[in-house]
Amino acid sequence: xxxxxxxxxxxxxxxxxxxxxxxxxNENIHIIAATVADTSEYGILRLIVTESEKAYKLLxxxxxxxxxxxxxxxxxxxSADSFAKTLAAFTQSGLSIEYMYCFSMKxxxxxxxxxxxxxxxxxxxxxxxxxxxxxxxxxxxx
Length: 142
Fold this sequence. Notes:
Layout: E1 2-11, H1 16-26, E2 31-38, E3 42-49, H2 52-61, E4 66-76, H3 80-92, E5 97-105, E6 108-115, H4 118-127, E7 131-132, H5 135-141
Antiparallel strand pairs: 1-3, 1-4, 2-3, 4-6, 4-7, 5-6
């Protein structure tokens, strides 16, 4: 029900993002989804990749500050109404969305999200019969 996400601390300096992506490229790791949250001094690059364990080890071996975290991946239609209904299931259960990003693949939108309570979020997914995606599913879609 969860997907591995790599969160990478990136200094806000010219070329740093390219250096990190080149490490992954050299090992033929593919990016499925990415987002960057930044400030004037640093950014957090969040990635969903093929071979997440390999990518994480590669980054750590190259002294890149990275964390591996579980996030939820939910498949939905790309309409704003579908997004709203999906997120409402969490809100109505008293869960906060800490962050969210999405991407489209094969005619579906995939919401990647992290809530303030992963176990309660899993129960919301089961109770509302939401279409969740596993890491294996994502790799097979790729």
